[in-house]
Amino acid sequence: MKALFILALALIASNVHAGCARTATGKVVCGNGDESASYNPNTGVARKSEVNANGVRTYESSTGAEAKTKNGMGVYRAPSGKTCVKGRYNQGCN
Fold first, then answer.
1. pLDDT higher than 50, residue 35
2. How many CB atoms lie within 10 A of CB 3?
3. DSSP state of 49
4. How far apart are the first and last CA of the chain?
5. Given strand 91-93, what is the order of strands in its sheet?
């Protein structure tokens, strides 16, 4: 009975962590394609990203930074309030 319980627990635990991996630099990265997350223990920064129905990927970090990108163009908002934009023919920050 104990062996069956341990086996069941191992199967459940393996499914929970199946989408996560540790990179060579120590980051833990999890994701399924539409949503993903990572944590860098060296800097203490956690990040997550999501894709909406229009294909816009939104990145958020635990520092308060946010970025939205699609087809090589995007908008970045820093925690300090600074906004940077990269379009097809221009880029810059205010």
1. yes
2. 7
3. E
4. 65
5. 20-22, 28-31, 35-40, 45-51, 57-61, 66-70, 73-77, 83-86, 91-93
- The per-residue pLDDT for range 37-84, each reduced to its tens digit, is 888 888 888 999 999 989 999 999 999 999 999 998 999 999 999 999
Sequence-distant contacts of 12-16: CB under 8 A, at least 24 apart: none
Task: Supply φ then ψ for residue 41, to 5 degrees.
Answer: -70, -20
Q: Give the pLDDT confidence score for residue 33 in this predicted structure.
A: 67
Separation of alpha carbons 15 and 87, rounded Å:
40
